[in-house]
Every structure is written in structure tokens, then in C-alpha cells.
Amino acid sequence: MSAVLEEEFTTAPGDAIPDAPEWFNSLRAKGQTDFQGLDHPTKKNENWRFGKPKKAQITEIPLTDEEGMELDIEPAPEGVIRFTFVNGYCMSIEGDTPEGLVALPLNRAIHEVSDYLESAIPPMQGKLGSEKLAAFHRASLEDGAIISIGDGVKVEQPIEIVHLFTGAGRSHTYLHVVAGKNSHASIVESYKSTNGEDASTVLSVSDIKVENGAHFKYLCTQELNVKSQLIRLGESHTGEGADSTTAVLHTGSEWVRDEFYSTVDGRDARCKILSVSVPHGEQEIDQRTFQHHASPHCYSELLYKNTLYDKAKTIFSGIIFVDEGAHHTDAYQTCRNLLMSDVCEANSMPGLEINADQVACSHGSTSAQVSEEEIFYLQARGISADAARQIIAEGFCADVFKKLNHDALEEKAVQALAKSFA
Amino acid sequence: MSLVVSNLKASIDDTPILKGLNLEIPKGEVHAIMGPNGSGKSTLSKVIAGHDDYEVNGGSVTLNGEDILEMEIDERSRAGIFLAFQYPAEVPGVSNANFIRAALQARLPKGEELDAVAYYKDLYAKMDILEMDRKFTARAVNEGFSGGEKKRNEILQMMMLDPKFCILDETDSGLDIDAMKVVAKGVNSMRSSERGFLVITHYQRLLDYIQPDVVHVMADGQIVKSGGKELALELEASGYEFLKEPALA
Fold it and tell me: What span, in angstroms and rounded, lies between the C-alpha atoms of A146 and A102?
């Protein structure tokens, strides 16, 4: 199939979109007001320590303009629901949505499920340093993927969201998910450039709500070209007895700022937050996380792994925050860096703040090179030292995706990962 | 393929371990090395395999006349040397099937791809001999394996790579009798007139199941006594006290 991208959407940030519901235009207007009232972050902001706040000043970059460009898009396999976005605009939705599932582009959802969406869109993000960009994103909100999995609904195949970027300039993406009570579903989102030259600047926001008793898994693979940059602001909220796992793979982009704020709120809520980054050259991956324990008897586990080559740089700053009264919390945070060169730079700032009793928390960070004993073992089986290092590094990363406990998502992650080690 | 070790000297951190060791294992034969702790048995296996921690200070090791000490570790393996490790490394995130496949792929000429169907057929057949569950293929290499599982995995790799010369470094350690029988079955299935074995062990009991042609006693970095398989029984009965006798000291 082919998709033709036409510039028919863009309205200036904060301005009302003709025919859009009033509540939606109010959101945009408030976003614009907030945006104008906030300052750009600076290095003095703790959330930008070791980072490059100047890189986040993207609002003056013109929107991508690729009128009439045709893209060949591979059709989705049978039975798969797939959104395809080009530069943040929905080009197609394939597959039949079963009863109880809403899967719509935002510009249709604001009309077709207006009341639902008005109540479901949460307050703005950006708590981890990018408030101004979150406000800008909201002021510019026009399109995105709106997915609502009804109470008790089971969606067997992962829902796919494919983002393609073409032409230089700025694009915005938005994902809004509500996994209803006792539902089961999974989503895989991918970011790719259509060529190696166009410098895309992508501002991505995702809101994920996993309601009581639901089981939800999410994977994002980011393989943009190394001229591009990505700012990804994500939030997840996991309710009572619910189980959520979110994972991201960053292999692309010359600069990534990735903020993820997860809240476990409701007895026996469980949440896993996973990430793998494999930067080469001078790529920089800057990740900030917040594990918010708002209720007692919740579990959260964060595992971030970085494999750094050449002059690559990573920053991990994570906080476990246990609210007053959130007793019997189990919270874990681990960042592991595998250093594949002598000049790469891995910065880790794990942290925790505990305001409750009977809490089991751990946080830690390690940086190491590939173990000589492991290399020897592989060499002793006839594998060259260079190939051994690659196999071990790939295994170090792939190991994270086992924690998805989801064969299809793991396979997609491992396939995307393998390209970095080919 | 015969393995010839001549006057081999090796040290670690300037401490001499092997002190002029001589050993010749013709193809088709199984030789066992026994000896007290610290005599240098495992060092010998690692020096032959090429471990970087050891410095070779003299002597030679040849496989069918070819000097292997000049080769990289992986070249030695591809030339036909196989070391079954006493403590095999764990490789998280790398499945056993992919690991063995990579090792076989490394033996093919550039551009040639391993036949995946034939590979799995062969792998499963050999796992059946070793009574290994099929789930082993998907598990990460040695990660979370029991001692016995690790040793079976070593023998599985040995069977898959079809080496010319096999060194088993204390393969019996950590094995119960049943597991040892299974491991021995795997080793015995590979005995042939073309392949040599060096079996390093502390205990005679392994040699009940893998019967050696020659038994050597190693002490202080040298082979100090050689004999038939009955020598192992003697050692089992009387230990290494004889090493302290003046004639051998």
C-alpha cells in the first residue's frame, strides 16, 4: 500500500482547530499558556545534570513539510491492528478492531469518542525536566494513536504503531492507552527514518493507564537515523492488582532525551520498566526515570542496560519515591553499562526516597567491560575475539527483553536489536 | 591426530607452574592425568587452549605436527582442540542453540551459511544421547545451570563441534553417579581411532566409565609417573604419598 502525506492538519500551537470540540481546543490553549509561562531548562536544573538542555530547545525548528510524498508501506499481517503514522500524522489503520477495543487516530477520536477522551486525557507531563516541552506538545496536539481496551477484553495479537519520519524538521507523536479493568493487551511501537539523511526532531508523548487487574505490555523500538533526535516523555499508571511492563530499545538518533514516570497505585500493582540502549559513534542517550509508589503492597522493577561503543554517552538518573503510608513496598532499580570502548561515557545517578515502613528497596548501577573469562570461553569454541564480544554484548542486551514475558514482543525487540550487532 | 607436549614451561604472574612437561597422546588413545591439588593439571589444559593469564616460557605443543602455541585461542579450537571446562562461563542472554550455532558457523568458509534444519536435527540427536531436555536450547549458556547441567552442556558442545582432540578438565567434579554415566556415554560415543582424549581427574571413579589407555601422574608441573589404567586404582588405594619418597621428590 502507499500513503500520501498531505499537510492538511497543522494549526499554530494553542490555536483552535476548526470543528474540534471545545474541551480539546481548551487543552491546546492551556498548553500554549503554560508553554509561554515556563522557562527552558538549564544545566542548573537537577533533572538536566550531565545533559544537554540546549538540545531540548526544539520549538523553533520548523515542522516537517513533505507534501505529497509517497511512501511504500508494507501491509500488516492478517489479524494485526496497525496504525501507520508519517511524521506524526496517521496515514492508515489496518485490521479489524474487536468489540470492546477502540483504536482511532486522535483527530477522529476527538469526535467519535469525545466524552471518553475528555475524561481520559491526563494532566500534562514533563515532571522530570521537560515541562515546557510537554506544554508545547499539548498546545500542538493534533494527531496520535488513541487506544482503549475495554474492561475484560483480551487482544491476542500486539497492536502495532509504526512511525515513519521523512524530510528534515520537527514532528510530534502521541500515544494514549487505557487498558480497562482485567483486560489483556500488548502494544509495539516503532520509530524509523525512511532514509539516512533527513534530520528529524521528534517530540513524543505517551500516556498509559493500566486499570485494576489489567495485564498490559508495551514495547517501543527506536531506530531513527543518526542525524535525528528524539524527546520521549512517557507516563504509566498501574492500578490495583494490575501488571504492566514497558520496554524501550534505543539504537538510533544522535541525541535522545527519554523521561519516564511510572506510578503504581493500588494494592498489588506490579510494574516493570525496561530499557536497552546501544549507542555508537557520538550518540547520546539521556534517560530520567521516576518510580512512584503511591499505595502499599506494590512492586516495581526497573532495569536499564546500556552498551556503549566509540564515543557514545549515556546518562541514567532514576528515583524510587515511596509515598507516606505506602508500606510493604518492593522497589528495585538497576542500571548496567557495558563499555565497549575506552572513550565512551556512562553516567548513572540512582536514587531513592522512602517515606514508609517495611519497605524493600534496592538501587544500583554498574559499569564494566566484557568479561575476559566469557570471551575466552567463546574463543575456546572457535569464535573470534571480536565476534565473541559482539555475541556477549548482544546477549547482555537481549536478556532484558526476556523480562517482557511475551514471546512476540521479545522477538520484535531482539530482531531490532540484532541490527545493531550485525 | 596426536598431541605432543615437549618440555612445556608456563607461569602465571611470574610463578612457574609447568616445569618442563612432556606428554604424547597418539590419536585414538585416551590418556588420563591425575595428581594432587596444585600440581598444574588445569594449568596444562588452559595453556593448551591458550588462556591469556598464562605465559609460556618454553617448550612446544603440537597437534599432528602443527605448532598450536603460535595460534590465537579461537584458531586452536578451529584447528581441532576442544577443552571441556571445569568451570564453564555463563553467557547471559545468549541461548545455547545460538551459541553452538555461532561456534559451528565460525568453522565455515566466509559467505557459507549453516543449514539450520540439519543443525537442529543433529543438536537434538546429541541432546538425546546426553538425556538433555529440549528446553536447554533456549536457555542462556550455563546461566542458572546446576553443576551437572553445565558439564553435560560441555559434552554437548564437544559432540557438536566434532573436535580432533578433546581435553576434559575435571568433568566429573560436581557430578552424581547417574550424571557421570551419561557424560561418559557421550564421551565414549566419540571415541574413535582418529581422535585423542586427555582426561584430567582427581578420582579414579570417572575412569571406570571412560577407560583410559594410559594414566599419568602429575606433580609440581611435570609428569612423574605413567602406566596403564591399573595405576589409577593404585592411586585410589594409596593416594599420592609415594610422591614424597626421595626417589621421586
Answer: 7
A10 exposed, middle or buried (CB, 10 Å; 0-12, 13-18, 19+)? middle
Q: List the Cα angle A187/A189/A191 in 5-degree steps.
A: 175
Q: What is the mean pLDDT of residues A31-37?
A: 96
Q: What CA–CA distance (Å, rounded) separates B90 from B83?
A: 16
CA distances for A120 relative to A207, A339, A376, angstroms: 10, 42, 54
pLDDT-above-70 percentage for chain A: 97
Cα of B114 to nearest chain A Cα, Å: 15
pLDDT at A7 over 50: no
Residues A375 and A389: beta-carbon distance below 8 Å: yes
What rounded mean pLDDT belongs to chain B?
Answer: 93
CA dist., res. A400 & res. A413, Å (int): 10
The pLDDT-based confidence of A10 (bands split at 50, 70, 90) is confident
Q: Is A17 in CB contact (< 8 Å) with chain B? A: no
> pLDDT tens-digit profile of A93-141?
999 999 999 999 999 999 999 999 999 999 888 899 999 999 999 999 9
Number of CB atoms found within 10 A of residue B110's CB: 4
Work out the burial of residue A398: count CB atoms within 10 Å of its CB; fewer than 13 is exposed, 13-18 middle, 19 or more buried: buried
List for chain B the helix, strand, coil content (%; round to 5): 35, 30, 35
Chain length of chain A: 422
Phi, psi at A346, each rounded to 5°: -115, 120
* Dihedrals phi, psi of B3, to nearest 5 degrees: -105, 125
pLDDT in tens, A252-304: 999 999 999 999 999 999 999 999 999 999 999 999 999 999 999 999 999 99
Assess A196–B contact: CB distance below 8 Å, yes or no. Answer: no
- Inter-chain contact A383–B88, Cβ cutoff 8 Å? no
Write down the pTM of the prediction. 0.93
- The rounded distance, in Å, linking the Cα atoms of A296 and A318 is 21
Distances (CA, A) of B83 to A133, A335, B94, B155: 57, 35, 20, 10
Angle between helical axes of A407-418 and A385-402 (0-180°, round to 10): 150
A-B C-beta contacts closer than 8 Å? 86
**Is the pLDDT score of B247 beyond 70?**
no
- Which CATH architecture describes the domain B3-244? 3-Layer(aba) Sandwich (3.40)
Domain limits, chain A: 2-418
Residue B158 CA to residue B154 CA, distance in Å, equals: 6
B171 pLDDT higher than 80: yes
pLDDT band at residue A69 under the 50/70/90 scheme: low
Q: Which residue has the cell 590419536?
A: B27
Distance CA B242, CA B239 (A): 8
End-to-end, the C-alpha distance of chain A in Å comes to 29
Kindly tell me if the per-residue pLDDT of A3 is higher than 70.
no
What pLDDT is recorded for position B241? 79
Q: Does residue A339 surpass a pLDDT of 60?
A: yes
B84 and B166 Cβ atoms separated by less than 8 Å: yes
Residues of chain B with Cβ-Cβ distance to A380 below 8 Å are 49-50, 73-74, 76-77, 82-83, 85
The vertex-A59 CA angle with A56 and A61, nearest 5°, equals: 100
A167: left (phi over 0), alpha (psi -120 to 50) or beta: left
Q: Are A146 and A116 in contact (CB under 8 A)?
A: no
Closest CA of chain A from B72, distance in Å: 9
The complex's ipTM works out to 0.95
Q: Is the separation of the CB atoms in A330 and A362 below 8 Å?
A: no
Q: What's the grid cell of residue B44?
A: 596444562
